[in-house]
């Protein structure tokens, strides 16, 4: 069965975005981009970034499908990009996005957990990338199998949390830790079964 992985960047104090939803304040270093994104998770770079970096021909290593919330997708739309991850099968969870906005993007407006369970049953050697946001991650907490948290060495005080949900405990175990030259840590957790 395929895994759903919440792959997200966050501040030390647990925020994935500013109160207005922007996330352009993360300190990105050359080694983080080169060794982690390009070297290990190239499919998590949007297509236009892959093209800019000259790595659009790299094969997907972990994911062939991505799921994102409307607010996450809105950032691409604001930049005039209607299909931000052309190298992945793309789903946007929304009740307000026009279903015909781009033929490469499928809008999920119903039971997102049921859709994820359906996607998990597909025959594929690659997983499902959950790109955000906090409300969507909270809705899918029971379906999330893995967390890949990029913890940037900053404190922002407030903003969009990693999860926006009612109190409930889910147990995860640490699988790996990596550090980068700018102080960023990448923590990978698997859900305890």
UniProtKB/TrEMBL annotation:
The protein's name: Deaminase
One Gene Ontology molecular-function label: 5-amino-6-(5-phosphoribosylamino)uracil reductase activity
Xref: Gene3D superfamilies: Dihydrofolate Reductase, subunit A
Lineage: superkingdom: Bacteria
Domain annotation Bacterial bifunctional deaminase-reductase C-terminal: ranges: 2-185
Pfam family, one: RibD_C
GO BP terms, alphabetized: riboflavin biosynthetic process
SUPFAM superfamilies tied to this protein: Dihydrofolate reductase-like (SSF53597)
């Amino acid at each position: 069965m395929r895994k759903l992985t919440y792959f997200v960047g966050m501040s030390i104090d647990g925020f994935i975005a500013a109160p207005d939803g922007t996330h352009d304040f993360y300190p990105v270093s050359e080694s983080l981009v080169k060794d982690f994104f390009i070297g290990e998770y190239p499919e998590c770079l949007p297509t236009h970034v892959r093209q800019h970096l000259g790595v659009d021909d790299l094969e997907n290593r972990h994911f062939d499908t991505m799921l994102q919330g409307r607010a996450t997708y809105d950032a691409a739309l604001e930049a005039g990009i209607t299909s931000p991850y052309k190298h992945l099968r793309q789903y946007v969870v929304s009740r307000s996005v026009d279903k015909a906005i781009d033929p490469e993007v499928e809008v999920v407006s119903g039971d997102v957990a049921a859709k994820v369970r359906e996607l998990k049953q597909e025959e594929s050697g690659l997983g499902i990338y959950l790109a955000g946001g906090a409300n969507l991650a909270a809705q899918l907490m029971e379906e999330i199998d893995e967390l890949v948290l990029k913890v940037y060495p900053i404190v922002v005080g407030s903003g969009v949390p990693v999860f926006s949900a009612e109190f409930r405990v889910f147990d995860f175990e640490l699988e790996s830790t990596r550090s980068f030259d700018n102080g960023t840590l990448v923590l990978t957790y698997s859900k305890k079964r």
